[in-house]
Amino acid sequence: MGFSAAQLVFFSVLALLLVNVHAEPTSLGFVSIDCGLSGRPYVDEITNISYVSDYAYIATGEKHEISSEYKSLALYRSGLSLRSFPSGGRNCYAVAAAAAGGRSKYLVRAWFMHGDYDGGGGSLASTPVRFDLYIGLAFWFEMTVSDAATTYAFEAITVAGAGGSSSSLSVCLVDTGHGTPFVSSLEVRPMSSDMYPDAVANQSLGLFTRGNMGASYFLRSVDHDLFVSNSYYSGQ
Q1: How far, in Å, CA of 107 to CA of 189, rounded?
Q2: How far apart are CA 25 and CA 31, in angstroms?
Q3: Which CATH superfamily is domain 30-234 in?
Q4: CB of 208 within 8 A of CB of 9?
Q5: Per UniProt, what is the membrane topology (predicted)?
Q6: How far apart are CA 71 and CA 76, in angstroms?
Q7: Distance of alpha carbon 90 from alpha carbon 37, whole angstroms
Q8: Does residue 69 contact residue 116 with C-beta atoms inside 8 Å?
C-alpha cells in the first residue's frame, strides 16, 4: 500500500511543532536525550532546552566524543557526543509513552553529527555511512552521512504503537552493512491527538520544510527536503 508525497510530509510554523526555546517542564512529557553523554544533565546555552544522558533509554552501543577539530562546528552542545552501534544489527531507544500523560501522538526528532569520532571522517565523501532509521517496526528513513562537519536532523510525527507496543515509543538504528550507525541526540515531544490528523497508527508524517514567520529573535530551524519520498512509509 502506497501513499502520496502530500500524505508523507508536513509544513508548519515552529511554534505549532512545540519546538520550545524555553526550559522544558517535565509535566509536558518532553524528552531530550544527549546520546553518549557521560556527565550530568544540563541546559543548552543556546536553546535553553534541558538534556539528559541516554543511559536510561538504551543498554547497547558505545559512547564517543567528536574530534577536537570539529567541536567548534557543532550547532549545539548535544552534538559534542554520540552513541555508535558497531554490533547488534538493530539497536533501539525505548521512550515510555506514559510520560506524555496518556497522549499517543509525538513529534520525534533525531540529530546526527559524525565529527570524525572514529577517525574515518575523511572518507565519508567517497564512502558515506548509511543506515536505516525505524520508529518501532515501521521504516522511517535511510540515513546517509557524507560529511563529518555537517549536522543532520530528521523529524516525524507518529503515533505510539505504529509498528510496536501501544504503551511505548522506540527509535531504532539498523545496520545495513554500510558503516556504523550512530546518533547524537533524540527529542520526543507529545502532541495533542487532534493535531496533524493524517498521522495515524499505520501512517507517520515526515518533515518537508518549516518557515520562520516574522520572528525577530533566534529560533532553532530544521529544514530538509529529503522526506519527499514515497519510500518513507510508516505502517504495519
Answers
A1: 5
A2: 10
A3: Galactose-binding domain-like (2.60.120.260)
A4: yes
A5: Single-pass membrane protein
A6: 10
A7: 21
A8: yes
Reference 144, options 157, 156, 158, 132; nearest CA is 132
Place of cell 515501521: 138
Q: What is the pLDDT of residue 167?
A: 56
Question: What's the pTM?
Answer: 0.78
Helix (H, G, I), strand (E, B) or coil at 187: strand
Domain-wise residue ranges, the chain:
30-234
- For the record, the C-alpha cell of 176 comes out as 545495513
Closest-CA residue to 173 (of 145, 151, 192, 149): 145
Q: Which residues in the chain show pLDDT less than 70?
A: 1-28, 96-103, 161-168, 217-236
Which residues in 45-78 are b (16+ Cβ under 10 Å) and which e? Answer: eebebbbebbeebbeebebbebeeebeeebebbb
Strands 62-65 and 81-84: antiparallel
Bridge partners (DSSP) listed for residue 205: 157
Nearest CA to 108 out of 138, 83, 87, 128 is that of 138
Cβ neighbours, 10 Å, residue 18: 18
Percent helix, percent strand, percent coil in the chain, to nearest 5: 10, 40, 50
| Residue 75, all three cell numbers | 550547532
